[in-house]
């Protein structure tokens, strides 16, 4: 609700047009056999290739959520209009570093709409698909679970009716391409639906679930409420009751004046520069209240919760960022939530790509 005027200033424009050139050398890694891609400590009993009904015991979906564990978003890469335009071109090293540090999963924000035809049958650009294949294979072969989403599909929220067929066609193509992939690949319906009513979004989300289920009857799916995936809008989230393979995600950036101080893509944030987060009683209580809210909804509705994004931008001071990050992560864990930090090596980065080193206070906050 706070995140209304989000204009992505192209900090990115400063970045050289070096980008796609170096992508041409990237070839997809051959599919990795399932047995080697499952994180060992968290094996699932789910047989993805069976045609078991989707009404499996709820415990399974809780285990699937637990497997996501502690994760990190590979932000600003495949979610940019073109990979590289926002300063990040994924490398094999990224996946190795993330796995070796001890993360369980990555979330892969992906802007499919920039690589999909405007006219039916809305074909996805094969070169882009191969790039996504490569990223998924990298993650799986490093033992990381993958959350693949549709990110920045703003046209969809502006014109849900006009874009519906295209949205569903995108999911049909993604779902059938990865239908045989291990169940360590999760699909997330859409990032941060906004400026759309819960009634319209609930219907659209249910249709996308239906489109995916045609080829992926047992895939773990991640779904979300409106208003930039706000925990306060969980109450209005309506899900297909019979589908017990759904994990519910929300994003957490509160207090927004702290986490988004100086964020160039949100107007008016420079006046918040200097805001600290000191973990005083009131600050801690606010976070606990919000996470309790989400946890209670999950409990009441028997749905596991994934905190798919949280983070504080680099314009805030490091002490505050580390305190806030560690507090949110621990509080989420205490409530049985899995999480993914926003993000790996751009403006919120837990990793400093220039210096080739982790930002230790943030890394320790995430993985103590
Ligand atoms: C959302 C946006 C992403 C942004 C992040 C933090 O995921 O899609 O572009 O960087 O939130 O504001």
Give the low-confidence spans: 1-51
Shape: globular
Small-molecule components bound: alpha-D-glucopyranose
At the fourth level of CATH, the homologous superfamily is Glycosidases
In sequence order, what are the helices and strands, one letter per element?
A: HHHEHEHEHHEHEHEHHEHEEEH
Mean pLDDT level: 88
How many strands, what sense, and barrel or not for the largest sheet? 8 strands, parallel, barrel
CATH class: Alpha Beta
Which tags fit this structure?
binds alpha-D-glucopyranose, globular, 13 helices, single chain, eight-stranded parallel barrel, alpha/beta, 38% helix, 11% strand, 10 strands, two-stranded antiparallel sheet, 368 residues
Briefly, what is this?
The protein is of the alpha/beta class.
């Amino acid at each position: 609700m706070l995140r209304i005027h989000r204009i992505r200033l192209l900090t990115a424009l400063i970045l050289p047009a070096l980008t796609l050139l170096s992508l041409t050398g990237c070839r997809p890694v051959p599919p990795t056999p399932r047995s080697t891609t499952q994180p060992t400590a968290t094996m699932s009993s789910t047989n993805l290739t069976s045609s078991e009904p989707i009404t499996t015991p709820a415990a399974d979906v809780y285990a699937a959520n637990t497997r996501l564990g502690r994760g990190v978003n590979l932000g600003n890469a495949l979610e940019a209009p073109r990979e590289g335009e926002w300063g990040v071109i994924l490398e094999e090293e990224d996946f190795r570093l993330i796995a070796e540090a001890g993360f369980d999963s990555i979330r892969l924000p992906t802007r499919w709409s920039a690589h999909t035809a405007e006219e039916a049958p809305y074909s996805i650009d094969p070169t882009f698909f191969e790039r996504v294949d490569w990223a998924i294979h990298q993650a799986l072969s490093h033992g990381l679970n993958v959350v693949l989403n549709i990110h920045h599909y703003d046209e969809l929220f502006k014109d849900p009716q006009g874009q519906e067929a295209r949205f569903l066609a995108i999911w049909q193509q993604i779902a059938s391409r990865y239908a045989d992939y291990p169940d360590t690949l999760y699909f997330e319906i859409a990032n941060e639906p906004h400026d759309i009513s819960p009634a319209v979004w609930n219907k659209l989300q249910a249709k996308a679930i239906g489109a995916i289920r045609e080829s992926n009857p047992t895939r773990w799916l991640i779904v979300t409420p409106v208003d930039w995936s706000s925990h306060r809008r969980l109450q209005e989230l309506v899900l297909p009751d019979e589908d017990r393979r759904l994990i519910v995600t929300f994003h957490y950036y509160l207090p927004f004046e702290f986490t988004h101080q100086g964020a160039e893509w949100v107007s008016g944030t420079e006046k918040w520069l200097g805001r600290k987060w000191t973990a005083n009683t009131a600050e801690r209580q606010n976070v606990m209240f919000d996470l309790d809210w989400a946890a209670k909804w999950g409990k009441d509705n028997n749905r596991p919760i994934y905190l798919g994004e949280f983070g504080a931008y680099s314009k805030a001071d490091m002490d505050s960022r580390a305190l806030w990050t560690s507090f949110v992560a621990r509080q989420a864990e205490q409530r049985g939530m899995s999480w993914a930090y926003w993000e790996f090596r751009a403006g919120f980065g837990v990793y400093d790509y220039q210096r080739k080193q982790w930002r230790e206070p943030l890394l320790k906050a995430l993985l103590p």
